[in-house]
Each structure stands twice: as C-alpha cells, then as structure tokens.
Amino acid sequence: MSARILDGRALARRLNQALKIRAAELPRPPGLGVVLVGEDPASRVYVRRKGIVAERLGFLHRQHDLPADSSLERIQGVVAELNDDPAIDGILVQLPLPGGLDGRLVTEWIEPDKDVDGLTTISAGLLAQGRPHLIPCTPLGILRLLEEAEVSLEGLDAVVIGRSNLVGRPVAHLLEQANATVTQCHSRTRDLAGIVGRSDVVVAALGHPGAVEGEWIRPGAVVIDVGVNRLEDGTLAGDVGFEVAAQRASAITPVPGGVGPMTIAMLMENTLRASAQRQGRPVD
Ligand code: GUN
Asked: Which CATH superfamily does the domain covering 27-119 fall into?
C-alpha cells in the first residue's frame, strides 16, 4: 500500500482564504499580539511566518521583540499592555523562553479570552473537562487534517506519543472527545512498538527523528507526524520513518508541509474566533 499524503499546506491555504473573508466582515480587523524573547533562530522563523500570514489575512499584527536578558517584570509589562489593548484579540508568547525564564508562569499572564495558543491553565482545564474554549493550535490542526481526510475517529484505537502541554496532552483529549480510545505514550513507555502496531491512528510528537520506526505502523493506519527535526545535513525530518511508514499507512502527513502550516492557520482561526467574540459577533 502507498499512503495518501495529507497535504497540510494546501488545506491551510484554503482555510486561510476563508478566514480572510470572514475577517473582512468584522467591524474591525482581528488583532494578534506576538511576544518574542531572545534570538532563538527557530523561534524567529516561526514568529515571522505567523506575522506574514496574519498580515496577509488583513489582521492587525503587533510584534514585541525583547532581548534574551529581559526581566520577568519587563515581559509582564508587555503582556499586560496587550491584555489592555482593545485592538488586540489574541496574544502569543513564543516558547520556549530563553535561559531560566519560566514559560508556564509567563503564559498565565495572558487573559484567557485572548489566549489564542490555548495554553493557560484555564484553557487547558476547559479542554480537559470537554468544554473547550480556545484549543491549542497544533492539536486543533491535527483534528482538522483528520476531518479533511474523512477519518471517522469513532471507536478507533489512537496512540499519542508525547505528553507536552503544547501538543501531546491536548491532542489526546481531542481524540478521546471524538470517541477514539486513546493510549498516551512517552519516553518511558515500555512497549512503544507494540502499542503503535495495534493503533489505527498514530500521532507522533516526541521531537526525535525516526523515534517511530516505519515497520511498527499497522497496515492501513493513519499517521500524523508532528516532529520537526533539523538533521545534520540541514534537511528537516519528522519523528516517523517516513519512507517505510508511507508504504504501510493509508494516510500520512509529510514533514515539512503537513502539520506545521496547519498550526499557523489554527492560530489565525483562534484569533478570528476571539475577535468575533470580543466584537459581539456570532462565533460559528
Ligand atoms: N513553540 C513551538 N510551537 C509553539 C506554539 O504553537 N505556540 C507557542 N507560543 N510557542 C510555540
């Protein structure tokens, strides 16, 4: 079998076009405030991409670049300013923060209504209770990719490999709420190969290239690869051994061009949603 490639880039493009039209219908444009602390090259690339897409969709976009040695008070001041700014509907502090700064603490300063990353304790708690408000962007993008691929999750066995607050935990909640039976694995899991081999849906979010071997994939499974790993030769690779997995799976996301573009599209969707709500407009 040769898997269908789940093209996140194409789906994100279509979703972004629809978001642009909906944004133009609001009394004022959705506003996204981005805080970038330090010089981490990958973070700078991600933040730049988010800004480009926001502007392309006609959103107001404000970016605050702070030096790596910023005090917590300085960062708190910037987040407070964005919280108080009526033109800003969504706030994102790019993670990880540089040396010693506590990303969890900083994230909590964001007003829950503007938490377009879905990372505050309130957003995470609402999702865990099955009444989500703003859902983390990568997990939401994964569910949209599965929807697009017409994968009905009802009763399927799904495995999530990784337990981060950004991806692993929230995506496990979403899959369970879509009536999949979810096993959550992590770096200490004993029989990862066996669990993957029994699963209809595999979500790999470990951040180690090739951590999930292609041979483990059950024939016909759907594989979602969240990993973005820079190899020594400069190329990008996911967490799953793609070549072999693509021979066994029924559908698989490529890296790059799978989950990544969906994360940005979902950030825009969350910002539009927060904006519509704050402007008293119906939220789909
Ligand atoms: N770092 C990597 N991905 C993300 C994300 O989705 N949101 C934030 N805030 N930081 C990230």
From this structure: Leucine Dehydrogenase, chain A, domain 1 (3.40.50.10860)
List the structure tokens of 208. Answer: 């180690």
| Residues 233-276: tens digit of each pLDDT | 999 999 999 999 999 999 999 999 999 999 999 999 999 999 99
Active-site residue, selected from the candidate residues 117, 200, 225, 239: 117
Q: How much is the pTM?
A: 0.97
261 CA from centroid of ligand 1 (Å): 13
94 is annotated as an active-site residue? yes
Rounded-to-integer distance, Cα 96 and Cα 20, Å:
29
Residue pLDDT, tens place only, 152-169: 999 999 999 999 999 999
CATH class name, domain 136-259: alpha beta
Do the domains 27-119 and 136-259 sit in the same CATH topology, yes or no?
A: yes
